[in-house]
Structures are given as C-alpha cells and as structure tokens.
Design goal:
- By secondary structure, this protein is mostly beta strands.
- Helices cover about 10% and strands about 45% of the residues.
- The chain is built from 2 helices and 27 strands.
- The chain has a 27-stranded mixed sheet that branches.
- The longest helix has about 35 residues.
- It is flat.
- The termini are far apart.
- About 30% of the residues are buried.
C-alpha cells in the first residue's frame, strides 16, 4: 500500500430508525389512557350498581334492617358521641328521674299514634320570678305546651311533662330539667342530642302542661314575663284574660301552630312559621303576630291611656290571609292613639275596627298583593284615607246616615280629592279639626280594595 494513500477504515453501516420506533411511547400513552378510561367506566358501573341496590333496598323495606346491622357496633346507651345543645347561659338545677306510667288520652299528641312508652316528670316554678321561660334544643325535641289556670292559690306554677317514646331506651336521648338563667329567671329545659340519633327508630315527643295558680283572694294573678323558645312545639293558651295579667309575653316556635283562647298583657310577641296563629289578645302597649305561609285569625283589644305613646299591633304573614277584628278602647271618655299594621302577600286582608274612642288618633296600614283588601271602620274614625291597586277598583263605601257619636247633631264631612281607576284619596270627619286626626292606607295589586266608613 502506498504510504501516500490514507488508510481505509471499515465503514459500519447503520440502518435508519424505523418510522414505527418513535411512536412506541405514544402507543404506550394511548394504552394507558384506554386503561384509565376502562377503569373509570368500571368504577362508574360499580357506583351505579350500588345506587340501584340502595334504592331497591329502600323501596322493599330492608334498608332499616341493613343500616341497623351496619350500626350494631354502636351502643345506644353510649352517650359519649352526643353533644347536648345546652345554651351557655343556662344552669341545670334539677333533671328528671324518670317514672314510667300509662299514657292517657289527654297526653297523646294529635298527629301521631299512641306511643308504647311514656314517662312523667314534674317541676315547680316560682310565679313571681322575673321571667318564666321554657326552651327546647336538639333534633329530637318536639311536641306541645299548654298553659292552664288552676283553683289553687299561691306563688308556684306546677309544670308537668309527659315524654312519649317509641323505643325502650329512647329516654337516654332526653334531658328534662328545671333550669335557671341570669337574675331570678326560672324555667324548663327540654334537651335532646344536637344531631339525629343513629338509630332511625328513636322518636320522642314532649307534652308540657303549665298549671298557673289563681290570684290571692280571687284577685288577678300577676306574672312579670312569660317566654317560650320551643321550635316544633304547638302552643295552646287557655282562657286566661280575666285570671292572669302578664307584663310581657313572648311565644316563639316554628312549624307549629299557636292558639290563644284569651290573654291580657302589656306587650306580646307571638311568632311562628309555616303554621297559623289564632286567638284573642288584649294589650295596653304593643302586640306582634308574625308567621309565614299560614293565616292569622285574631280578635284584638288595644287599650291606650292617652299618653304620648300609641298602642300598636303588627300582623304579618305571606301567602295566606289575615282576618282580624281590632277593638280600640281607652280608660278615659275620649282620645287615645292607635297604630294597626297588617301585611301579607297573595292573601286577603279583612280588617274590622268595630269600636274606637271619640277624638282618637287612628293610623292603619293594610298591604297585600294579588288579593283583595276590606277595611271597615266605625263612625268615630276621623282622618284621611288613600286606596291604591292596579287593574282593579279602589272603592270607598260611605254611610252618610250614621249619627254623631258626640250626640251634637253634627253633619259628617266626606270629601274625595282624587278618584281615578285604581286610586282614591279623601277625608272623613265630624269637624275640620278631625280631618287631621288619623290616616288609613290600603294597598294591593290586581285585586279590589275597599274601605267601608
């Protein structure tokens, strides 16, 4: 080999990479995605199958058996998992030591079949306490409370509690206690766990009866303040107007009705929701009747002592009617100041004031929508009025033959300022001075509004 010739090295031939070699990773990625999709589909099918099985068990009545079996590891007598919702300002004074007894008809709740078990407990509360209060907390707390009068004189209100239950160990889920709060406040507390019991068959119901004594030597019993905070408890107050006089009353519940045969009080707040309010209420200061999605039907007596403050009533609901008769009185021969508010929506208002003092100041506001309003006033009413609606008529019915309430043979003044379709304004009085004494406003829409004078 010539030295000038460069050495020849063997050339190693390399085959070009196959076009299919690089996408191998993409094939693995596609394979992984397919597998994940299949796994998700299997999981979805499993969930659907489980849901169908659950619905099938629920529909065939085996669900309770299955859940009871799954929960059999929890002892109903083990209270460590429960939280008793006792307010921080409440002190437990004495709690029930249960004594079982047969359940009589008067203790059975109207809406449920008779319970197989019942327990009775009782407590004494001092009537002269600054406040008598009754409260309930917990998911199992429900029932009724009744306030009645007795023929026994004294300063003690006897409170009886009948606890009805449907399972033998259900009393483990209830605390019925005499409680105190603040300065000289005494009451009753009904407590159940703050979350639903793990066993579906746990069911409790409380029936509370408060026996108020009569006043000494047949006098009217004086009670400073009465207060309830009892959701899901129906309230019934006996005919107490001529037997007991309350300085203040505050009854609160929800999803349960309140029925008051008669009551006499300085101030009163009656509150519920989704249930009606009915009764006879007499007040010398203020009255509030508030609910929602249920009617209000009331006979009301407002007394005013000719002071600077008016005696007021508020009636408020929605999607339901208000039917009220409000009588206005004063301990003097004339005068007095009164305010009446009635408001609802999609519910009729029928408000009647049959009597009112001479020369009194009366202010009325009645408002609804898509429903008619009828307000009827006595001949003693003096002042302005305005009626308004839409696409319907606003009518004023005036009786010019009514006699002068002062018996002075005065002629009744009746003037209309504006009378057009859907709106009417005017004034009625026995003298020029009386034209400014009161004011009536009536509002609705898509329905007739009527003022009868």
């Amino acid at each position: 080999m010539d030295s000038s010739t460069p050495p020849q090295y063997p050339v190693e031939k390399h085959e070009p990479l196959a076009s299919s070699s690089l996408p191998v990773y993409r094939q693995d990625s596609e394979f992984s995605s397919v597998e994940r999709f299949k796994k998700k589909r299997r999981c979805f099918r499993f969930i659907c199958a489980g849901l169908c099985f659950y619905l099938m068990m629920l529909g065939t009545g085996h669900f309770n058996f299955m859940t009871s079996f799954l929960r059999s590891g929890f002892s109903n007598s083990d209270v460590s998992f429960r939280s008793w919702p006792i307010p921080s300002d409440i002190t437990l004074d004495k709690c029930s030591e249960w004594s079982e007894d047969s359940l009589t008809d008067r203790h059975r709740h109207r809406d449920l079949p008779p319970a197989p078990y019942s327990a009775i407990s009782s407590f004494d509360l001092k009537v002269s306490a600054r406040t008598l209060f009754f409260l309930a907390r917990g998911h199992l707390s429900n029932g009724e409370i009744n306030f009645v009068s007795t023929t026994n004189e004294g300063d003690i209100a006897r409170v009886e509690v009948v606890t009805s239950y449907w399972e033998a160990n259900a009393l483990d889920y209830a605390k019925v206690c005499r409680v105190t709060r603040g300065d000289d406040e005494e009451g009753l507390g009904l407590f159940t766990p703050s979350w639903a019991a793990p066993h579906e068959r746990i069911r409790l119901q409380f029936s509370v009866t408060v026996h108020l004594p009569k006043g000494v030597k047949d006098s009217v019993l004086r009670v400073n303040a009465l207060e309830t905070d009892l959701p899901l408890f129906a309230h019934h107050v006996d005919d107490l107007a001529n037997k007991v006089e309350f300085e203040g009353v505050n009854l609160r519940t929800a999803n349960a009705h309140i029925v008051v045969e008669s009551i006499s009080t300085g101030t009163a707040k009656i509150t519920t929701a989704n249930s009606p309010i009915e009764g006879t209420f007499n007040t010398s200061s203020s009255l509030s009747l508030v609910t929602a999605n249920a009617y209000i039907k009331a006979k009301i007596g407002l007394e005013n002592g000719n002071g600077d403050d008016s005696t007021n009533v508020l009636m408020s609901t929605s999607n339901a009617p208000i039917d009220a008769v409000v009588s206005l009185t004063t301990p003097k021969s004339s005068g007095g100041k009164y305010r009446i508010h009635a408001r609802t929506a999609i519910g009729k208002i029928d408000l009647t004031v049959p009597v009112a003092p001479i020369d009194s100041n009366i202010y009325i506001d009645a408002t609804t929508s898509v429903s008619p309003v009828l307000v009827t006033l006595p001949a003693t009413y003096e002042g302005g009025f305005s009626l308004e609606t839409s696409l319907k008529r606003a009518n004023v019915l005036f009786d010019g033959k009514k006699e002068d309430p002062k018996d002075e043979k005065r002629k009744r003044i009746f003037e209309i300022f504006g009378d057009r379709f859907g709106r009417t304004e005017g004034v009625v009085a026995w003298s020029d001075e009386g034209k400014a004494r009161g004011d009536v406003k009536i509002r609705s829409s898509l329905a007739d509004v009527v003022l009868s004078l």
